[in-house]
Write a structure and sequence with these properties.
This protein is mainly alpha-helical. It is built from eight helices and four strands. The strands form two sheets. The protein has a two-stranded antiparallel ribbon with strand order 1-2. A two-stranded antiparallel sheet has the order 3-4.
Length: 273
C-alpha cells in the first residue's frame, strides 16, 4: 500500500470504530436517574485538537492526586514533550531536552540497578524512563485499596464506553443521591456511572485540591475536565497528526477526482456516446 492509501484506510477504520463505540455507549448506562453529561471536548470533530493548557493542568491533577494509586504504564516521561503532546515546545523538538519533561521526570523516583554494586536503588527519573509502577504487584494494590484494583489510566479513555464523557462523569457524579436499592458494604462508595452503582475508589477530587499556576479555579468539575483532557491525550497521542493526515487525504482525493473528471471529458471528447 502507498502511504496515502494507508492513511485513508486508517481514517476509515477509526471512523467505524468511533461509530461502533458511540452506538454501544448510547445503549449502556449507569444506575438510578443519573444522566451522563455530554461535554463539548476540544478534541472532537474533524478539526479537533487537544486543549494544551487544559491537558497541562490535567497532568498536574494526575501527578498530585491520581498518581498515588494509578499508573500510566504505556507512557514514558519524554512522551509529554512529543509533537501534539501537552508539553511540546518548538524550541525543544527533542523531548529529552525539554526542561518541563526533565523536571517532571526528576520529580519521580525510579528503580534501577547500581552499576558498581549491583544493588537495587532508587534514583530520580530521566525523560527516557517509563512512568513507574505505583504498587509492586496487584495484590499489594488491592491490599492498599480495600480490595479494589486501581486500573492503569494511560488507555482508560479508550477502554471505557463513552470515553472522555465517562471518565469526566465518573469523577463528578459522587455527590448524586444514592437510590435505596443500592446497598454499600465497607470500602464501597456510591457512583451512578459505575455498573451497579458501586466503586471502591473514594471520591478523589475536592474543590481546591490542587493549586493551578495559571490562576484557573480548581473546582471538582474543572479538575475532572482537565485530567480527562490529559488522559484523552494519553490514550490517543497521535490524534492531531491523524486528523491532519485525514484532511490532507480528503484534499488529495478531491483534487484527483477533479483531474479525473477533466481527463475523462477530454479522452471521450470526439467519441459519440
Ligand atoms: C486512593 C487511591 C485512588 C486515587 C487517589 C484515585 N483512584 Fe481511581 N481508582 C481507585 C480504585 C481502587 C479503583 C477501582 C475501583 C473499582 O473497581 O471499584 C479506581 C478506578 C478508577 C477508574 C476506573 C473506573 C471503572 O470504570 O472501572 C478511573 C477512570 C479512575 N479510577 C480515575 C481516577 C482519576 C482520574 C483519579 C485522579 C483524579 C483517581 N482515579 C484517583 C483508586 C484511586
Amino acid at each position: 500500500m502507498t502511504l496515502n492509501m494507508k492513511t485513508a484506510f486508517m481514517v476509515g477504520v477509526t471512523t467505524l470504530v468511533a461509530a461502533a463505540s458511540t452506538l454501544a455507549y448510547a445503549a449502556g448506562g449507569g444506575t438510578g436517574d443519573y444522566k451522563m453529561e455530554h461535554k463539548h471536548w476540544h478534541f472532537n470533530g474533524a478539526f479537533g485538537t487537544y486543549d494544551k493548557a487544559a491537558a497541562q493542568r490535567g497532568y498536574q491533577v494526575y501527578r498530585e492526586v491520581c498518581s498515588s494509586c494509578h499508573q500510566l504504564k504505556h507512557l514514558s516521561f519524554r512522551h509529554l514533550g512529543d509533537k501534539g503532546a501537552p508539553f511540546y515546545d518548538e524550541d525543544y523538538k527533542n523531548p529529552n531536552d525539554n526542561p518541563y519533561v526533565k523536571n517532571f521526570a526528576a520529580d519521580w523516583q525510579v528503580e534501577d540497578i547500581d552499576s558498581e554494586t549491583g544493588d537495587v536503588i532508587d534514583r530520580p527519573g530521566v525523560p527516557a524512563d517509563a512512568f513507574p509502577a505505583i504498587y509492586p504487584n496487584d495484590a499489594a494494590a488491592r491490599a492498599g485499596n480495600g480490595g479494589g484494583l486501581p486500573p492503569d489510566l494511560s488507555l482508560i479513555v479508550a477502554a471505557r464506553n463513552g470515553g472522555a464523557d465517562y471518565v469526566y462523569n465518573l469523577l463528578t457524579a459522587y455527590n448524586t443521591k444514592k437510590p435505596d436499592d443500592v446497598e454499600l458494604t465497607a470500602g464501597l462508595y456510591y457512583n451512578p456511572v459505575m455498573d451497579g452503582g458501586k466503586i471502591s475508589m473514594a471520591p478523589p477530587l475536592n474543590d481546591e485540591g490542587v493549586e493551578y499556576a495559571d490562576g484557573t479555579i480548581a473546582t471538582v468539575e474543572q479538575m475532572a475536565s482537565d485530567v480527562t483532557e490529559f488522559l484523552a491525550w494519553s490514550a490517543d497521542p497521535k490524534l492531531e497528526q491523524r486528523k491532519a493526515a485525514g484532511l490532507m487525504t480528503m484534499l488529495y482525493l478531491s483534487i484527483l477526482a477533479i483531474l479525473l473528471w477533466f481527463s475523462y471529458k477530454r479522452v471521450w471528447k470526439d467519441v459519440e456516446h
